[in-house]
Structures are given as structure tokens and as C-alpha cells.
Amino acid sequence: MCVFFTKVFVFDAANGAFKEFDVEGDSYAPNGDVSIQGKHAPAPCEGNTVVTELAKICALCNDSNISYNAVTFA
After folding, report:
1. Could you tell me if 3 and 24 are in contact, meaning their C-beta atoms sit under 8 angstroms apart?
2. pLDDT class for 54, splitting at 50, 70, 90?
């Protein structure tokens, strides 16, 4: 069985650092796990509005991606 991980980085304005999430899964099924720095995150959205909004985007537009354009800075 192949397991795919996606890295998600969120900027934490409170301490000026990036938080790294590993998101596991490879299909539209709600199967997988989220970990922070290699440790299971039971509620990664709790208290984190950026991760909550990202989860909403992924749930509503699960055939899309989010990318950064270095030319337009958007």
C-alpha cells in the first residue's frame, strides 16, 4: 500500500515562525492523518483559523490546488 504525504506550512504570527503539518491521504475518501512535527495531531484545526480555512477549501474544492505565483505574488 502506498501512502502519500503532503507538507502544509502555516505562518504563526504570534511567534513569527512556520508550523509544519504532514497530511496523509491519497483519495477523496476522508481517510488519513494529520501530524505536526512527526506527532499525531488529534485536532489540528482547533484554535488555528488558517488551518480551519484550508480544511474548508479542501473539502469544498477537492479537485483543486493552492499555489503561489512568484511573478504576481499571489
Report:
1. yes
2. confident
C-alpha cell at 11: 505562518
DSSP conformational letter for 41: -
pLDDT > 70? residue 5: no
Assign 53 to helix, strand or coil: helix
Grid cell 499525531 in the structure block, residue: 40
Chain centroid, CA 53 distance in Å: 10
Bridge partner residues of 22 (DSSP): 7, 35
pTM (whole model) above 0.85: no
Question: What backbone torsions phi and psi does residue 42 show, to the nearest 5 degrees?
Answer: -65, -30
Which residues lie below 8 Å from residue 20, measured CB to CB, with a gap of 6+?
7, 8, 9, 36, 37
What pLDDT digit, counting tens, does each position of 32-52 carry?
778 887 788 777 667 777 777
